Amino acid sequence: MSSQDTRPPRVLIVSADIGEGHDAPARVLAAGIREERPDAVVEVIDGLDAMGPLMARVIRDGTEIVFGRFAFLYDLEYWLIVHFPPARWLAGTLMYLVGGRGMLRAIRQFRPDIVVSTYPGTTDVIGRFRLDGFLHVPACSAITDLAALRYWAHEGVDLHLITHPESTDEVRGIAPLSRIEWVRGLTSPGCLEPFDKRGARRSFDLPEEGPVVLVSGGGWAVGDLIGSAEVALRVDGATVVCMCGRNERVRAAIDERFDGEPRARSIGFTDRMCDLLAAGDVLIHSTAGLTVLEALMRGTSPISYGWGMAHIRINNRAFAEHGLADVASTPDELEAAIRRALANPREPYLEPADRPTAASVVLEVAATTVR
């Protein structure tokens, strides 16, 4: 065995504290790498913090404010970036020039064998580093959306990990020379394992009989959670669980709205997402991303509703095209979708179980780095 094989690999994972959609897969990937290679040196950093306080404040705080209060501005911003090349160039260039120095400093301090990004904004910066010759080790993007991948994928990135095989063509169109691997191991742990629905319901103090509808707005609880719950309660005998992530303000509003309604309840952030999804029959979700895939793995029928704008709109079209999730845009459409899902339950989607783990692919590519 060569020294290259025995030297502990160094893996730097760059995430961003924008809800749970980027931090969660970063944590899962880091844990998977440590499990498969216990001697690996793995670090997860917040790429926005690495790029400096200005970038962190503008992107993190600005995104949270826009998501919560001025969603139409996010929709406009996304449209400009996707459809107006000068706006796309300006946004990417400003992030690169203002935050690039700090990001590159963080990478060089760690001395990685591979850099993995779980956030599109940092993927764009890291891909530019590769193209400009500032980064001499492989770059990897861990993609957890189905579609709208312009920033998730980058021509300067060596390896793209995808969670949906349906994403392959879009990634290939953006980064034709990149390696693309459909992998497992970026979702919450345990979603591909066998489960007992009644047992899962008991563990959350839910009724063992009758429909259970889960309502989610991601880690920041964005979208029309209250409206979704009101519609779900139209279904006779349905129990509704609103997943509020880390947003205590939204949870308090939900608790106030449904005070005295025994069929509705809220739950904060949980690290037992796969168990909760196993307890449900239907998931109403507003922000696309990994939660939809996790629901499919558990045989819980996903419906996208409550925040259909910007990249979510594009993901919704892809969900419908590939039959991965139902899409509703009005309360009546949502009620019809819930009833369809309950009448035609899904089987658990287990095909990803045969795929390589994200950790194993990252370690394989890291082993090619010569220092």
How does this model look, in words?
The chain is an alpha/beta fold. It has 2 domains: 3-183 and 355-366, 3-Layer(aba) Sandwich (Rossmann fold); 197-351, Glycogen Phosphorylase B (Rossmann fold), CATH 3.40.50. It is built from 16 helices and 12 strands. The protein has helices at 3-6, 23-36, 47-50, 53-69, 71-83, 85-110, 120-132, 168-174, 197-203, 225-232, 248-257, 273-279, 290-297, 310-322, 331-343, 358-366; strands at residues 10-15, 41-46, 114-117, 139-143, 159-162, 179-182, 212-216, 239-243, 264-267, 282-285, 301-304, 326-327. Helix 13 links the parallel strand 10 (282-285) and strand 11 (301-304). Helix 4 packs across helix 5 (71-83) and helix 6 (85-110) packs across helix 7. The longest helix is centred in the N-terminal third of the chain and has 26 residues, at 85-110. The two termini are 17 Å apart.
Show the helix and strand layout.
Layout: H1 3-6, E1 10-15, H2 23-36, E2 41-46, H3 47-50, H4 53-69, H5 71-83, H6 85-110, E3 114-117, H7 120-132, E4 139-143, E5 159-162, H8 168-174, E6 179-182, H9 197-203, E7 212-216, H10 225-232, E8 239-243, H11 248-257, E9 264-267, H12 273-279, E10 282-285, H13 290-297, E11 301-304, H14 310-322, E12 326-327, H15 331-343, H16 358-366
Parallel strand pairs: 1-2, 1-3, 3-4, 4-5, 5-6, 7-8, 7-10, 8-9, 10-11, 11-12
Question: What key attributes describe this structure?
Answer:
six-stranded parallel sheet, 371 residues, 16 helices, 14% strand, 2 domains, alpha/beta, Rossmann fold
Beta-strand segment tally:
12
- Low-pLDDT runs: none
Q: Please identify the structural class as seen in this structure.
A: alpha/beta
Coarse shape: globular
Radius of gyration: 21 Å
H/E order of the elements?
A: HEHEHHHHEHEEHEHEHEHEHEHEHEHH
Helix content: 40-55%
Strand order in the largest sheet: 2-1-3-4-5-6
Tell me about the biggest sheet? Answer: 6 strands, parallel
Number of domains: 2
CATH class of the largest domain: Alpha Beta
Q: Report the CATH architecture of the largest domain.
A: 3-Layer(aba) Sandwich
CATH fold name of the largest domain? Rossmann fold
* Mean pLDDT across residues: 92
Measured between the Cα atoms of the first and last residue, the distance is: 17 Å
Count of helical stretches:
16
CATH superfamily of the largest domain: Glycogen Phosphorylase B
